[in-house]
Amino acid sequence: MSEIYREITPLTQYDCFTVFDRKKTIFDFPLHSHEEFELNLILSGKGVKRVVGDHTEVIDDAELVLVGNNLPHGWLTHSYRWQEGMPEIKEVTVQFHRDLFDDKFLKRNQLFFVRSLLEKSAKGISFSRETIERIKPRLTSLAQKSGFDSMLELMSILHDLSVSRDMRTLSNSTFTDENINFNSRRIEKVFAYMRDNYDKDVNLAGVAKLAGMSEVSFSRFIKKRTGKTFVESLNEIRLGHASRSLINTSNTISEIAYKCGFNNLSYFNRIFKSRNGCTPKEFRDNYSGTRTFV
After folding, report:
1. Between β-strands 5-6 and 32-33, what pairing exists: parallel, antiparallel or unpaired?
2. Helix spans in the chain (H)
3. Most confidently modeled of 105-114, 182-191, 277-286?
4. Coil, helix or strand at residue 104
5. What fold characterizes domain 185-293?
6. Can you tell me the distance from the alpha carbon of 31 to that of 76, in angstroms, rounded to the nearest whole number?
7. In sequence order, which residues have a C-beta less than 8 Å from that of residue 14 and are 6 or more positions away?
8. What's the order of all strands across the beta sheet hosting 125-126?
9. Of 92, 111, 155, 188, whose CB count within 10 A is highest?
10. For 2-25, what is each residue's pLDDT tens digit?
11. How many helices (H) and strands (E) does the chain have?
12. Domains of the chain: which residue ranges?
């Protein structure tokens, strides 16, 4: 399998989900994974190759797939060739946080099928043509809703998908790393501080002091609890805001880098490409379309 990149999506901790609607004639975004769940509707894409985990398949002219968090996935142009007069591919993508529905909520009897759906999505789920035709109008109009109504509609869509017939899981194995439980008031306090001050000078000495630990002890502590170093954790927060700015603003890449706490443009470009598999400009071009945050 090709190299899999870790995408930093533009969702913040204050968003419930995002809906992305675009038309295209080529799929050139690399195989990637991210923390968020992703529901992807693709129309008029016959001949495109879908890769989810260790499963590959050439799709028909309509498909709907739910991808679990941290599961590598991607759609590749493959044998699809757009010609003059053909309809462009329509892609509607919904991304939502893995903790949008917490464990206690999902354990309620009424959420049994939704919980089962999200668990199955760890291997990727493909839905039947009948389900696609039924859900398609609701997904394509989701971006027109707002506030609480949009959240209710997303929950309703997920429930209808959870009880739909003839769904099938795709990957034989989940490809996800074992999640590290880092429930810790110290870590939560530090992450809250980094999220609130990502655009400022945040350094190891300051966050270690905030946690009441020495720099060496805190460095070991955050790595053990989260699996990431302090710098990696801070960069992920900053890259998330940078990704959102690339989509939502016309600011230059250098302006975005500096506003998101990166004081060195070449370092920003290098880190961005290493995590997303493309340059900031390529990312902005790839996500040209209508994106709605809820």
Report:
1. parallel
2. 103-106, 112-120, 129-140, 147-162, 185-197, 204-211, 215-226, 230-248, 253-259, 265-276, 280-286
3. 105-114
4. helix
5. Arc Repressor Mutant, subunit A (1.10.10)
6. 9
7. none
8. 168-169, 125-126, 62-67, 37-43, 89-96, 17-24, 290-293
9. 92
10. 567 888 888 888 899 999 999 999
11. 11, 12
12. 5-169, 185-293
Backbone angles phi, psi at 173, to 5 degrees: -135, 155
Tokens of 247: 């989509």
CB 75 within 8 A of CB 42: yes
Token pair for 76: 């590749």
Angle CA(82)–CA(88)–CA(93) in degrees, nearest 5?
A: 125
**What are the pLDDT digits (tens) for 135-177?**
999 999 998 888 899 999 999 999 999 999 999 999 875 554 4
Residue 276, both tokens: 């997303």
* Domain covering 5-169 assigned CATH 3.50.50.60 in the classification: no
